[in-house]
Amino acid sequence: MVVAGRRISLAGVAWALALAAAFLAGVSYLEHAWALLRFPFEVDPGEGFDVNGAVVLLAGGELYGDSTRFPFFALNYPPVYPLLLAPLVAIWGPSVVVGRALSVAAGLAVALLIGLAVRMPRPNRLPALLAGLGFLASAYAVHVMPLARVTSLMLLFGVAGLLALERGVESRTSSQRWMFIGVIFLIAGVYTKPVGLDAAVAGAAYLAWRRPPSWLFMLATGLVLGGGVHLGLNWSSAGRYFDSVYLANAFPWDFEQAFSYWRNFFETHGPLLILAAVGLIGHLLGRWPSVWLFYLAAGVATAATAGRWGAGESYFLPIIISCCVLGGRALAWGMPGALGGQIFGVSAFGLYVLTAGVGPWPLHNLIPGWDRGFQAQLSRNPTPADIPAGERIIAFVRGVSGPVLSEGAGYILAEGGTVIGNPMQIRGLYSHGLYDPGRLDQALTEHRIKGVILLGQWYPPETLGAIGDSYVQVDRVEVGLNTYLLLRPRAG
Fold first, then answer.
1. How far from 47 is each of 54, 73, 295, 302, 437, CA to CA, in Å?
2. What is the DSSP letter of 475?
3. Same domain for 333 and 407?
């Protein structure tokens, strides 16, 4: 009895420590999100361009216009994010903060759905709470989810769709309705960001395994609805939708970049992967077959493409979500070995929070490069010095009497100007020989563009050459870890 009592005490201590660590990591996530919501300028160069899609819609413009003509802008993502963001922009104005608010809400909803997924087979609150907070604890989630980007909304639709499918399969009533809702959510995820196809494939494979008759109907429904949307978008844009969304994002794959990301992922998320393996084995043994097995497999395939330029930590988030669900369910079922197994499982989850999180503890510093790369810098909260630095860029935009070509579109939106160009979309099309920068270069040479803001110098070589020949740098501004070069037309 003494031993048993001590074991119970150890289990309680393990739960308390793991929940405390997860809670602190969740607080760190919210603190970082709140810091970004109070910061009026971009921290990721893609934020302004994603938000500008909503601005274009409100102005009655084309999301997938001809980017070889003024204003040289086309969105390089599907339309769901700007469609949902547009009403918020109409109320609060064009700002990256509005986009962040939508992303923060979506990220918190994802954590909630993870908890619901853990509770579905066995309503145990503590594993569900630990799994939901565990997702927010990941540094990868902290880096990506609060930004005014499409990823948070894509994951929300994907997770909601998979959860609805699973409920439909397991439900004795209203199963077809739940599965149809799931298909709609999965389609919405794909049309938020094409990477959301991993959730759609996982859902289709799950239905084929568990409900073959329903699979045929739901697959046909998804193909008709999803295919119809694609054909409509492509037809209305004269084929530019496919070019801008798919070809413009198809960059070469680099082994070193992929290896670097995967190594960092295993170093930081290893304990979670071990715990998820227990849940995976439980599913494979037939205890409760679920869609999260397929989402994990599809997530691995998605993360394998992280070697492409422009890809990053967001490509690992489906794996983290799947592992949180599988690990949480392993705890909810009861780990092998009674209390000893439970102590091991809870400790593994707590150790994951300590190694992968950005909370107030030094353990993650023991892992070389634990928070490496460009995206790791995004977890840095803006400082008071960043505000006047950003205002210097705003003053530059305000002082230019005409359009400004900026690789940081957030500053153009903050001043209420028209966003000129989308370097990511133009770079992608140019790499496939599908973009002629002639008109853009001519507008620069003739000084019809009155100012230029460079950040990563992502435009084609000819365009950068035209900028170098026709413009002169007048200022260099550092906002956080981003360095902006401000240029005006050369005299004469």
1. 12, 15, 27, 22, 24
2. E
3. no
Whether the CB-CB separation of 276 and 457 falls below 8 Å is answered with: no
Local confidence band at 372 (pLDDT 50, 70, 90 cut-offs): very low
Q: d(Cα 143, Cα 375) in Å, to the nearest integer?
A: 6
Judge contact between 422 and 74, C-beta under 8 A. yes
Do residue 400 and residue 288 come from a single domain? no
Alpha helices in 191-310 (DSSP H): 197-210, 212-236, 240-245, 255-284, 292-303
Q: What is the DSSP letter of 291?
A: T
Burial 95-115 (b: 16+ CB within 10 A, else e): bbbbbbbbbbebbbbbbebbb
Looking at residue 5, its pLDDT comes to 47
If asked whether residues 157 and 297 sit together in one domain, one would say yes
Pair 33, 55 in one domain = no
- Pick the last residue of a domain from 325, 350, 371: 371
Same domain, 310 and 430: no
- Looking at the structure, tell me whether residues 21 and 46 fall in a common domain: no
Same domain, yes or no: 338 and 432: no
Q: Is 145 exposed, middle or buried (0-12, 13-18, 19+ CB in 10 A)?
A: buried
pLDDT at residue 441, as a whole number: 98
d(CA 191, CA 334): 38
CB 143 within 8 A of CB 357: no
pLDDT digits (tens, 9 = 90+) for 170-209: 877 768 899 999 999 999 999 999 999 999 999 999 999 8
User: For residue 312, which amino acid is it?
Assistant: G
Measured CA to CA, the distance from residue 128 to residue 236 in angstroms comes to 45
Q: Report residue 61 as tokens.
A: 């413009």
User: How far lies 44's CA from each of 107, 438, 481, in Å?
Assistant: 17, 28, 10
Please list, in sequence order, all residues whose beta carbon lies within 8 angstroms of the beta carbon of residue 277, skipping any fewer than 6 positions away. none
- Is the CB of residue 275 less than 8 Å from the CB of residue 329? no
Does residue 376 lie in a domain region? no
Domain hosting residue 135, numbered range:
2-39+95-371
Q: What is the pLDDT of residues 415-454, one digit of tens each?
A: 999 999 999 999 999 999 999 999 999 999 999 999 999 9
Residue 391 makes CB contacts below 8 A (sequence gap 6+) with none
pTM above 0.90, yes or no: yes
CA distance 183 to 181: 5
Contact present, 446 and 70 (Cβ < 8 Å): no
**Does 90 map to a domain?**
no
Count of domains for the chain: 2
**377 assigned to some structural domain:** no
Closest CA to 145 of 23, 308, 317: 317
Tokens 């066995």 belong to residue: 122
- Sheet arrangement for strand 404-406: 404-406, 451-454, 482-489, 471-479
The whole-angstrom distance between residue 360's C-alpha and the CA centroid of its chain comes to: 24
The answer on 33 and 49 residing in a single domain is no
